[in-house]
Amino acid sequence: MAKARPGRKKLKSGGCPGLTSGHKAATPLLLINIRQLLTLRAGSAPRRGRELAELSIIEDGAVLCEAGRIVAVGKTRDALRDSWLKGKRKRVREIDCRGKVVLPGFVDSHTHPVFTAPRLVDFEKRTAGASYEEIAAAGGGIRWSVEGVRRASREELAQHVLAALEGMAAQGTTTVEAKSGYGLSTEAELKSLLAVRDAAAHWPGTVVATLLGAHVVPREHLRHPEKYVREVCELMIPQAAQQKLAEFVDVFCDRGAFSPEHAQSVLQAATDNGLGTRAHVCQLSPCTLAPLLASKPASFDHLDFVSDEDVERLSRSQTVATLVPGANYFLGLERYPPARRLIESGAAVALATDYNPGTSPTTSMPFILSLACTHLKMSPAEAISAATINGACALLRQNSKGSIEPGKDADLAVFDVADYREIAYWFGMNRCWTTVIGGELREHK
Ligand code: NIG
Ligand code: FE
Fold first, then answer.
1. Could you give the CA distance from residue 403 to residue 399 in angstroms, rounded to a whole number?
2. Residue 357 near ligand 1, beta carbon < 6 Å
3. Helical (H) or strand (E) element with 124
4. Nearest C-alpha to atom 1 of ligand 1 is from which residue?
5. Which residues make Cβ contacts (< 8 Å) with residue 112, sequence separation at least 6?
């Protein structure tokens, strides 16, 4: 199947983040002879502790999809004997998945796709020994990316977002959270969210938009950060909410970004405007999560420096701990987030790419699974649950995404591997054979 060339497509405005773009497959789709079908059915959502490793595998499995939904899941021999199917077989498109693994499409619950250019100078400086924070203080980092976004048209930004979404789908991702955060003015943040909406309208998967106006304080407000926090709370958040441009508000609460007090104000404004919350926390330095938990965030992300006390707090909350080891890898850090401590305490752990130009320029969930196994010491089964059902929980989509069960959206990833552990084993190569989104077959090698 020919790959779409997003760079050449002309985008029209429209669509709505959070909604699939109306691509409802007309022809029912039947995947048969699946060597390992990872259903992740039953169990609790989110998965915690030992449950995280339960994949509910069906060998020689089959999945029937119709009108964008999963309608039946079972053994191939039972599917082929089914009287409903016998009557309809001629108008069902059959895909032979012999020797392959099928799992729920990945839910990448943390990405920053609205930027225009890679940060190559930062990259080179780091190879010469400079740290992320030193580079930011010297004029690189997030603020460097702002100029490009402010200058770019909405359409140009949408092209960048769509190219990233296509890259994600080719590697098994079917649901993506997309943050703004490189505009840092009301106008440029809203333009970024409109670009996310436009790109989402041209992609069959599900895009969940997040306003990250509070990423860092923009250069022009450095002397008076509180003025910028006021702009975020009193202009940006209300306007994003009124125009239904975002479902969540995020804030970067850390050294060099926003203080816990400012972060609390941002999350409170989100709640007051009917939006969900999430936050970047403890990425560069320790912080206390208790005050931020008041807004009941859907997720706390990064958590490299999380304290034992807060791990305990997380284990008693519904907030998902989203780990993004791509950032640790790309920054060349020795320290990785404490996945084992979180899992063993009963916190709900998810994995995401954190796709962005400064710390994690990758769209590949399989690579994140590889890092989770090699550096976070998660098992391949735990990594898969964290990247599917728990990612869905981090976006409050557990009722429609993240497992292969009748009634859920027909979003599937098919890998050309004989054993699910290979998905996390191979790295730097794409073993995703095809992606089914809304019951429609996508990439096909
Ligand atoms: O998740 N930490 C905040 N935001 C991004 C980095 C953004 C950038 O450097 O461009 C992250 O790592
Ligand atoms: Fe991030």
1. 9
2. yes
3. helix 120-127
4. 354
5. 178, 179, 181, 182, 212, 354, 355, 356, 357
Q: Which residues pair with 238 in a beta bridge?
A: none
pLDDT tens track for 199-220? 999 999 999 999 999 999 999 9
Does the pTM surpass 0.85? The reply is yes
CA dihedral sign of residues 226, 229, 231, 234: negative
> For 28-65, how does the pLDDT look when each residue is reduced to its tens digit (9 = 90+)?
999 999 999 999 997 899 999 999 999 999 999 999 99
Question: CA geometry: angle at 92 spanning 88 and 94, to 5°?
Answer: 130
Query: How do strand 299-302 and strand 276-281 relate by DSSP bridges?
Result: parallel
Residue 12 has pLDDT above 90, yes or no: no
Work out which ligand 1 atom sits closest to the CA atom of 327: 12
Burial class (CB in 10 A: 0-12, 13-18, 19+), 1: exposed
Helix axes 154-169, 186-201, angle to 10 degrees: 50
Mutation to probe ligand 1, out of 116, 284, 356 (largest number of atoms < 8 A from CB): 356
Tokens linked to 220: 């022009």
Nearest to 25 by CA among 411, 402, 414: 411
- The answer to whether 281 and 292 have CB atoms below 8 angstroms apart is yes
